[in-house]
Amino acid sequence: MSGADRWSGGDAYERYVGRWSRLVAPIFVDWLAIGPGRRWLDVGCGTGALTTTVLARADPASIVGIDPSADFVAHASQRVGDPRARFAVGDAQAIPLDAGSVDVVVAGLVLNFVPDPAAGLAEIVRVAAPGATVAGYVWDYAEGMQLMRHFFDAAIALDPAAMAEDEGVRFPICAPEPLEAEFVGAGLHAVKVRAIEIPTVFESFDEYWSPFLSGVGAAPAFAMRLDEDRRNEIRDRLRATLPTEPDGSIHLVARAWAARGRTTGTRDNARRSTV
Ligand SMILES: C[S@@+](CC[C@H](N)C(=O)[O-])C[C@H]1O[C@@H](n2cnc3c(N)ncnc32)[C@H](O)[C@@H]1O
């Protein structure tokens, strides 16, 4: 994670990206097709978008959500009352769980924020049991995550130096081939990558723009580091260029790249090794 990205303020996060992650999550969880009764881990659980979906659709035995943001962990703990779920402060690069202790590890919109994604994936593989599923999704920042793409395109048009902040530039892992390569490099097999597209509809320009003023998340944190005049120039350019319907609504789409793979061994081996 860039030191400048900000992860606190659960309600603001929900308005910015959490609500869109909640639309990707069901498609992602269904794609994994995991049976009931498994032990899940949600790395970088944030406000609990993916954990909530796993509880609703995959009938887990248990799910642990970890996130370095104590604020997000508190938000998720307060709102997810399911006894199968627990949340803890923790980092992908030092997961506070025993080796081989979970059957499924998921990470929604997280891997690109881990300072060393390969180290994060290695740690995820450590805590995963033999034959476990390891999976995640990231936004297609370079192209298909349109609400952020429009924001950075406007910022760069006004000042090319903004390119250094563009998440499409900062996060090369957020494309199908590099994402697949990270999973394969972590020793996972049967690796598959797919696109997940969801509609992101805003009733008004203000609904689109106001989350950027919260400072929560990478692009809003950048927006709030700018001086007010430059921020207003970006706002005005977006207001003029976003595709806007006659009723003022703005209909965009957001594309995520999802990846999944399996650790070596079989679940039967995992059971045998514990007896
Ligand atoms: C875009 S949010 C995604 C949150 C949630 N998974 C969702 O889908 O809404 C990114 C999350 O990654 C977390 N994060 C950042 N660095 C991390 C790290 N090194 N290990 C684990 N999580 C990290 C942030 O605290 C934040 O909650």
Reconstruct the topology from this structure.
Elements: H1 10-32, E1 39-43, H2 49-57, E2 62-67, H3 70-79, E3 85-89, E4 102-108, H4 117-127, E5 128-139, H5 146-158, H6 167-170, H7 176-185, E6 189-202, H8 205-209, H9 218-225, H10 228-241, E7 250-262, H11 267-273
Parallel strand pairs: 1-2, 1-4, 2-3, 4-5
Antiparallel strand pairs: 5-7, 6-7
Helix pairs in contact: 1-2, 5-10
Keywords:
7-stranded mixed beta sheet, 41% helix, alpha/beta, binds S-adenosylmethionine, 275 residues, disordered C terminus, 7 strands, Rossmann fold
Structure explained in plain terms:
By secondary structure, this protein is of the alpha/beta class. The chain has a domain at 10-142 and 170-200 and 253-264: Vaccinia Virus protein VP39 (Rossmann fold). The protein has eleven helices and seven strands. The protein has a seven-stranded mixed sheet, sandwiched between helices. β2 (62-67), α3 (70-79) and β3 (85-89) form a beta-alpha-beta unit. Mean pLDDT is 94; it is low at 269-275. The chain binds S-adenosylmethionine.
